[in-house]
Design a protein that fits this description.
nine-stranded mixed beta sheet; 754 residues; 26% helix; elongated
């Protein structure tokens, strides 16, 4: 219809420039148009007193507008309007046709695969139309591009496991840098496993003015499908820890139905629960609580059982790696007075084989009682005053102890323990703690997750009930029951606390997990915050021991809560070496970026360390990679390596200085091929439209692609010639010349002023 009215394809108008071919300058045309408009307006206005009452209003304006439009059109035709557009020279330019040959293109829809539909579109006249005007080169696109002599070669080739559109286009731009590429035609479903097309690639095509025309295949929405988008779980855990995973999923065609969500370690089901699927296309988050089990590297698979009629069952599960560690974690607990809370916290820790509480209890002004020490000299002189004595611990608990008990140097050491060492610090409520202990005016006030009231009398020996906040309902620290709703109710039924402490307002970065209600007021009870490399928390009570004393002997609520809180306190405390990779799952690409944060014995950045990564992989593979220091980040080291084979890889990073070992860390990652193409199998039209729009091309549907050979000529790439397209003889012009006076006459007749 567009070409029927405007004579030329749409590309002529979008890529061309309007010019006036008449002998007179354009400003004369503008003056005449303005004069015509003013003259017609004056003429109509002068006749209004004698005109019918029906046109003495907005109708006169309509008549003027129609007359003015006709006059302007006639004047425009006198100035000979035309479009100046660049057009590719026939047979002197190359059109590169890229056919996506990845696994997602083998999905069958309407009786044929997407790739078969693409080949059929080319064989249906598009390829012949292009070959009549240009030299055509056909390429197969997957992780890279490879030229194919004829389309039949695509029919017999097995589908590739991945698509990297950006890499393919970059390769094409490099290989054809000296060739007259007039345009690129990409036939694809838009599935790209590299995360998108980088700006450098798009800039390359824009700078060379090469348009990329995209032809999209595949349904934009799948009628019946459940897909797991992501599963987030901590990459490291202590043995026998309770882990919480957040699984994100969406579905179409099964709104309101039930589905079983499970997590497995090999063939063993760790946890599972039934969920209700949300509305079509709506992303929903579900949590799973499970035990990490024994130490070792584990591949956990999160999955949803297939539903009847599901079109794609390969996207119902994702795998994640978790490194479960068994190293002993030591916590230094400083308590200012004998009390029940101290006794029951230590009792809860005794059931945890990986946690050790080393405590110093002040029994009198100048005496301390030590428990859990490994050496008679440990804590013999009281709280440590040197980094080498304090930093071997992973966490610190400060009970009912006033701030003045610690020297200025010890307070500075505690601050460095959290900020530089990356340890965890927990304050407990008590009559000599927090505000009552003078901590609000101490040098450690910045460390706390709240702004403490700077006054006495904040500790009350009155009952208080506890309830979870929305953040607490999702936190592993406060998860007593797997089901989130049931967990909230479980907390409401806990016995009341024996005392509580006012802690003031939480700081902007803090998270309140539980609240207390006392004397008709709600106050924060359990607050956490990240600080530097570590974390801090406050439990604003000294009365959780009643959760054990006031419930049946077999009830483990108190033990579970404190074990989870103490494990949170120490689990993320880093060692001297912390190794990491951007993603532990390498999908269809073995390139991996290794990084390591290396600290010396005082946990200062060790920029002069020698760091090596020792990698063990499938088939007996063993590799040693030297890591190089980052000049912009002292103590940070990087290395690049490629995992050529699929399977799991174990990496041990070792840092030394002058032949002395500073530390080591272990991480694992895995390469999995042919997995990414199972997800997001609907057509990614947004990516295809953006690519074509950014490069000056056009997005085509399979139904419209037959018009592509007629429009692709209009390009400024390759070898071009400037062509002038006259506009005076367009059908739309003759229609306007007929319709404008006809519309005026009909309106005048209707209004009785003919």
């Amino acid at each position: 219809m567009f070409e029927l009215l405007f004579k030329y394809p749409r590309a002529v108008f979008s890529k061309g420039t309007l010019v006036l071919m008449g002998a007179w300058p354009w400003w004369v045309f503008v003056l005449l148009v303005l004069a015509a408009g003013a003259g017609l307006g004056w003429l109509i206005r002068s006749k209004l007193p004698e005109a019918s009452t029906q046109v003495k209003n907005w109708r006169a304006g309509i008549i003027w507008l129609l007359q003015f439009a006709l006059a302007a059109l006639v004047l425009l035709l006198l100035w000979q309007p035309a479009i100046l557009v660049a057009e590719l020279r026939p047979q002197q330019n190359i059109i590169a046709v890229l056919v996506d040959d990845s696994r997602s293109m083998s999905i069958a829809e309407n009786g044929s695969t997407r790739e078969q539909q693409a080949i059929k579109a080319l064989e249906g006249g598009v390829l012949d139309g292009l070959q009549k005007k240009f030299q055509v080169r056909v390429y197969r696109l997957d992780r890279q591009i490879s030229r194919v002599p004829k389309l039949d070669d695509l029919k017999t080739a097995p589908p590739a496991s991945a698509t990297r559109i950006g890499d393919g286009l970059k390769q094409l731009a490099g290989e054809a840098a000296d060739l007259p590429i007039g345009a690129v035609v990409l036939l694809s479903d838009g599935a790209d496993n590299s995360g998108g097309i980088d700006l450098d690639t798009i800039s390359t095509f824009r700078s060379r003015r090469i348009p990329v025309h995209t032809v999209g295949f595949g349904a934009e929405q799948i009628a019946h499908d459940v897909e797991i988008n992501d599963a987030v779980v901590a990459p490291r855990a202590l043995a026998d820890s309770r882990l919480s995973a957040k699984v994100t999923l969406h579905q179409r065609g099964y709104a309101g139905q039930k589905a079983m969500l499970t997590v497995r370690d090999g063939g063993k089901v760790l946890a599972g629960r039934q969920i209700t699927l949300a509305a079509d296309g709506v992303s929903q988050n579900e949590s799973l609580l499970f035990n990490a089990g024994d130490a070792g590297s584990k591949t956990l698979r999160f999955s949803i059982d297939p539903l009847p009629g599901e079109e794609n069952r390969d996207n119902n599960s994702v795998a994640r790696l978790v490194n479960v560690e068994s190293g002993k974690q030591r916590i230094l607990y400083v308590e200012g007075e004998p009390r029940w809370e101290y006794k029951f916290i230590r009792r809860a820790e005794q059931d945890d084989r990986l946690l050790t509480i080393v405590s110093m209890l002040r029994t009198s002004e100048n005496k301390i009682y030590r428990q859990g020490i490994d050496d008679p000299k440990e804590l013999a002189d009281g709280f440590p005053s040197r980094a080498e004595d304090l930093f071997p611990y992973q966490g610190i608990i400060i009970g009912s102890v006033e701030a003045s008990y610690f020297t200025a140097a010890q307070k500075e050491l505690i601050q460095q323990f959290v900020d530089r060492r990356g340890g965890g610090l927990l304050f407990l409520g008590g009559r000599a703690s927090l505000g009552d202990g003078g901590w609000a005016s101490s040098s450690l006030a910045d460390l706390l997750p709240v702004t403490l009231p700077n006054k006495k009398g904040t500790f009350h020996r009155d009952p208080a009930t506890v309830s979870l906040t929305s953040a607490g309902a999702d936190s592993i620290i406060t998860r007593l029951v797997e089901d989130p709703a049931a967990n909230v109710e479980r907390w409401k039924k806990l016995p009341y606390l024996m005392d509580y402490q006012e802690v003031g307002a939480p700081k902007p970065g803090a998270v309140v997990l539980a609240e207390m209600t006392a004397a008709g007021r709600k106050m924060p009870m359990l607050i956490t915050e990240n600080y530097g490399r570590g974390r801090t928390a406050i439990s604003a009570t000294g009365g959780t021991w009643r959760w054990q004393m006031s419930q049946p002997l077999e009830d483990q609520t108190h033990e579970e809560f404190w074990q989870q809180l103490l494990r949170w306190l120490v689990t993320d405390t880093p060692g001297h070496v912390v190794a990491a990779v951007p993603s532990q799952m390498l999908l269809d690409d073995g390139r991996v970026q290794l990084s390591a944060d290396v600290r010396d014995k005082n946990y200062l950045p060790a920029a002069d360390a020698h760091v090596e990564a020792h990698i063990l992989g499938p088939g007996g593979l063993a590799a040693q990679v030297e890591m190089t220091p980052d000049p912009n980040s002292p103590g940070t080291f990087h290395a690049e390596w490629t995992a050529d084979q699929t399977g799991s890889y174990l990496t041990e990073v070792i840092a030394t200085r002058d032949k002395d070992e500073l530390g080591r860390d272990v991480l694992n990652f895995a390469r999995m091929d042919g997995v990414a193409e199972n997800f997001h199998t609907e057509q990614n039209r947004d990516l295809l439209e953006k690519l074509s729009a950014e490069t000056g091309g056009r997005y085509w549907t399979p139904q419209d692609v037959s018009k592509l050979p007629g429009e692709i000529s209009y390009s400024e790439a390759g070898i071009t010639v400037r062509d002038t397209k006259e506009l005076w003889n367009m059908p739309i012009v003759f229609l306007l010349l007929l319709l404008l006076p006809s519309a005026e006459w009909l309106l005048r007749r209707k209004w009785g002023v003919v």
